[in-house]
Specification:
By secondary structure, this protein is mostly helical. The chain is built from 14 helices and no strands.
Length: about 290
């Protein structure tokens, strides 16, 4: 006879618990393996990178490798990091505001074709971004905006999945009664959205901003099509240019690996810093 928990449900067997724990450990190791490899590889010099075991340390050349990354080609790596921070911050901020406004409009205003429009938005969110890179290049080439920050920023402002999330959060967090009370008090629709809805949708805004920031930071194909000047590259495209140089001339694998490790540090700091506010927003929403 199987044992029964105090809550009335059957307790999982020890075998099931052990199997689940083992699978979670394997998944954790699989997820952390690339970062561990970057950490180990960034501490090695060029000969050790090829002659020693790839997943363990053989020396401590991290300071020299890091100095070489920051000093190579007059410090262009720092410019790439700055470009990524600028594009990710502005792109995520614009996308978040547009997504919340569009989601709020879809959720709270009735108009003809709203269901069809929402269906188009959901369908558009399923399209891979790489599929749109070349058509976007043709559009921006016609208006002479290629090789500028706008060619990367403007497409990032429109995020169908962000609009979907904005609608979901507007449906659940903005009461219709509160909007009616504000209208009775004489508030206009723009003021209701800016003063009431945006505050109530702050958890959704933080979620959309975080997802957009990570997506723009890791974006590769759109900058690859749009940008052709080294000083305009984000860090992803800059590191790719180093890989190409390594194939054509000198061996730059140490610089590429160390630069890759340095490039994920700002992203990790951002995610962990914003996660605190994201969690607090979720807890506040659950208490309400």
């Amino acid at each position: 006879m199987s044992s029964v928990a105090s809550g009335g449900g059957a307790r999982p067997s020890r075998r099931a618990v052990a199997l689940t724990t083992a699978l979670l450990i394997v998944f954790l190791l699989y997820s952390l393996a690339p970062t561990w490899f970057l950490l180990v590889a960034s501490t090695k010099n060029q000969p050790d990178l090829y002659s020693t075991f790839g997943l363990w340390f053989s020396g401590n050349h991290f300071a020299g490798n890091m100095r070489a990354v920051w000093e190579y080609h007059d410090g262009v790596f720092g410019r790439w990091i700055l470009n990524s921070v600028l594009c990710s911050t502005l792109g995520a901020a614009g996308s978040t505001l547009i997504s919340l406004a569009a989601g709020y409009g879809l959720a709270k205003f009735g108009f003809r074709g709203r269901g069809a429009l929402f269906g188009v938005i959901v369908g558009a969110s399923l399209l891979p971004s790489t599929l749109l890179a070349f058509p976007l290049y043709l559009v921006f080439a016609d208006i002479h905006l290629t090789n500028t920050i706008w060619a990367v920023l403007i497409p990032c402002f429109i995020n169908p999945f962000g609009v979907y999330l904005g609608k979901v959060y507007a449906d659940t967090s903005v009461p219709a009664e509160l909007m009616e009370a504000a209208r009775i008090d004489g508030a206009g629709e723009a003021r209701i959205f800016a003063s009431i809805a945006l505050r109530l949708m702050s958890t959704g805004g933080i979620t959309i901003f975080m997802l957009d920031f990570v997506g723009i930071w890791n974006n590769f194909f759109l900058p690859l099509f749009m940008l052709n000047g080294e000083h305009t590259f984000p860090v992803t495209l800059g590191l790719f240019s180093w890989v190409q140089q390594a194939q054509n001339s000198r061996d730059m694998n140490t610089l590429v690996l160390t630069g890759s490790l340095l490039s994920i540090i700002p992203l990790a700091v951002f995610v962990f810093a914003l996660q605190k506010y994201w969690r607090s927003g979720i807890l506040m929403g659950s208490l309400k």
